[in-house]
Specification:
- By secondary structure, this protein is α/β, with parallel strands linked by helices.
- The protein has 3 domains: 1-38; 41-112 and 159-264, Rossmann fold, CATH 3.40.50.150; 116-157, no CATH class.
- It has 7 helices and 11 strands.
- The protein has helices spanning 2-18, 21-36, 44-53, 71-76, 92-98, 180-185, 206-214; strands at 60-64, 82-85, 104-107, 110-111, 116-123, 133-137, 148-157, 170-174, 194-202, 218-229, 232-242.
- The strands form 2 sheets. It has a 7-stranded mixed beta sheet with strand order 3-2-1-8-9-11-10. Strands 4-7-5-6 form a 4-stranded mixed beta sheet, with no helix packed on it.
- The longest helix has 17 residues, at 2-18.
Length: 264
């Protein structure tokens, strides 16, 4: 940061000597933006660290679809309890190892918008029989040991059923390979206890999921971890904050041009 400010000062001085006034004004405004925002936020880790630095309350993490670990949440929030939901036994030993140094609770169950039974499908993205993804389905699929590695009946429940375990102002992260909206519907009784929600969405579900979450009193504050396929958006993570927690540190009063800055 000190090096950046030193560079800023020297370039500013240099611009005064050689640039026309209009060009110099535009150039210095851009440099001022870089000075105020030297590192754009584009991923979970930086975004969560930024929110904590700005005193947004995060008293716990509720991580739905943890697989083996969500390393960004481990690094950014090591001092709060993590409530981990993962129905795939394959990952349990890795979860135990990855979270061994922090307070955590593992719930070995799938979540959706109803309680009962469902089918856990473990699949291989590469078609080689090595599990890379898991999802739940109302219909049983026949394993071929290549793309479909296994299909087992498991219990499913609503997040509401466990809400008494969570303190107020928890960060809710959902990444469940396409079932995110069902999980949200099953959290309708406790979602207002969350301070921050991070939910994965593909290009076809961004608006639907955003509207659903906003209906519970949240607002979209960032789109992070964007993944492209070809030249267009494929998937991303949507970040929401509860409306009552929005403040001028996050979104300054309009309109000050110096608070505008580009994102990568």
């Amino acid at each position: 940061m000190q090096a950046l400010l030193a560079t800023f000062s020297s370039v500013k001085s240099f611009s005064k000597r050689i640039m026309p006034i209009r060009l110099r004004t535009t150039f210095l405004m851009h440099l001022q933006s870089l000075k105020r925002h030297p590192k754009p936020v584009g991923n979970k880790l930086d975004r969560i660290k930024s929110l904590r630095r700005l005193k947004v309350p995060i008293e716990a993490v509720v991580d739905i679809g943890v697989q083996t670990a969500t390393h960004e949440l481990i690094e950014a929030i090591p001092d709060k309890p993590h409530f981990l939901f993962e129905p795939v036994p394959t990952w349990y030993q890795a979860i135990k190892e990855n979270y061994r140094c922090m307070k955590h609770t593992l719930y070995p169950i799938a979540l959706s918008n109803q309680s009962g039974f469902t089918w856990l499908i473990q699949s291989s993205m590469h078609g080689d029989g090595q599990v890379t993804h898991a999802s739940i389905s109302n219909a049983r699929l026949t394993p071929d040991n290549q793309r479909i590695v296994s299909c087992d009946q498991i219990n499913v429940d609503r997040l509401d059923s466990f809400s008494a375990d969570f303190p107020a102002n928890y960060l809710l992260k959902i990444d469940v390979d396409g079932q995110e909206l069902n999980v949200l519907e099953g959290a309708s009784g406790c979602i207002d206890k969350a301070s921050i929600i991070i939910i994965e969405a593909d290009y076809s579900s961004v608006s639907h999921r955003a509207l659903f979450v906003e209906g519970f009193g949240f607002q979209l504050i960032d789109i992070i971890d964007r993944g492209m396929y070809g030249e267009v958006l494929w998937q991303c993570d949507l970040v929401f904050i509860r409306n009552d927690l929005m403040n001028e540190s996050l979104r300054p009063p309009m309109f000050d041009r110096q608070h505008w800055h580009p994102i990568p």
